[in-house]
Amino acid sequence: QRQMCIRDRYHALRTEDAFQIALQPKVNMQSGDIVGAEALLRWTKPDGTMVPPGLFIPIAEASGVMNKIDSIVMKKTVEAIKWLGNKGINIPISFNVTCSDITTSNFIENLVSLLSRSGIEPSLLEVEITESQAMEDYEEVNPVLKQLLSMGIKVSVDDFGTGYSSLAHIADLAVSTLKVDRSFVTKLSDEKCAEAGLAVCEMVYRLAKRFNFNIIAEGVETEEQKEKLIEGGYEFAQGYLFAKPMFIEDFEALCKKNT
Predict the structure, then answer these.
(1) Largest CB tally within 10 Å, which of 158, 162, 205, 245?
(2) For position 149, what pLDDT does the model report?
(3) 171-210 in b/e burial notation, b at 16+ Cβ within 10 A?
(4) Mean pLDDT value of segment 52-60
(5) Which of 77, 76, 175, 70 is nearest to 125 (CA)?
C-alpha cells in the first residue's frame, strides 16, 4: 500500500489538480460569525477515491516531496482567497507550513510573487506553523516569521501548549495568533481530566493577553467544551461542533447563509 501511495503521489504531483484544499471555518463562538478558515489538503485519486492526509503526508515527508506539496497548498490558498474575494467574501485563510519549507531560500520570494500576481491583501493570508517546529528551529524560523508579519501576513502557532520550550521565547515570538491544541480542548469534557484541560486553556489565555496575541481554540466538538471556553474568555474556535472542512463552493454557501 505504501509503494502504491508513493507511486500515485508522484503522479499527483505532476498533475497538481489531484490535490484540492478543503476549508474549515474559524468562528466567533457567541455570534456564530465565520471569521476565517484553515486550508487543509485533500487528495482525490483519478478513480475518485479520497486519500486521507494521515496516509499521504507522512510518506510525503519521508520521501522528501513535502516542500512541493506545501507550495501547492500555498498556491491553492491564495487562489481560494481571490475566488472568495470575487464573491464578496473577504476573510483570512491560513495554510500550514513545515519548518523545512519556511526556511528554504525561496519561500518568501515565492510568496511575494504569488501575492503580487493575485493582487490579494496580504492580511487575508495566514501562515500556520506548529509550536514544536517553531521552537526546535527558533533561531532560523523566527526571522522568517518576523518578515511575514512585516509584510502584513498573519502568523499562527498551531498545537500551542504541547511544547514547554516556547515559554522561553514567547515574549519575542513573531506570531499574531496562538492556537490552543485540541488535546486540551478535548479534556474539557472529560470528567477525569477536565481540571487539567481548563488549567492549560486558562494559562494560554493569560499568556496571549499578556503578550497581545490573538487566541483560538482548536478541535471544539461539544457544547460543553464551547461553554467552558466562553466562560474562560475565549471568543474564537474551530472544530466539528461548528463545521467540518468543506470544499470552497460549500464554504461560500455557508458564509452567505451566515450573513
Answers:
(1) 158
(2) 97
(3) eebbbbbbbbbbebbbbbbeeeeeeebbebbeebbebbee
(4) 79
(5) 77
Mean pLDDT of the chain: 89
Q: Residue with C-alpha cell 461553554?
A: 227
Residue 53 has pLDDT above 60, yes or no: yes
DSSP one-letter code for 222: S
Cβ neighbourhood burial of 17 (10 Å; 0-12, 13-18, 19+): exposed
CB 130 within 8 A of CB 158: yes
Distance CA 213, CA 195 (A): 24
- Per-residue pLDDT tens for 166-191? 567 777 889 999 999 999 999 999 88
In the chain, beta strands by DSSP E = 19-28, 34-44, 50-51, 93-96, 125-130, 154-160, 177-180, 214-217, 236-237
Give dist(CA 74, CA 78) in Å, integer: 6
Instruction: With beta carbons less than 8 A apart as the criterion, state whether 128 and 93 touch.
Output: no
- The confidence band for 98, taking pLDDT boundaries of 50, 70 and 90, is confident
Task: Tell me how far apart the alpha carbons of residues 65 and 42 are, in angstroms, rounded to a whole number.
Answer: 16
Contacts of 150 (CB under 8 A, 6+ apart): none
CA atoms within 13 A on the CB side of 179: 26
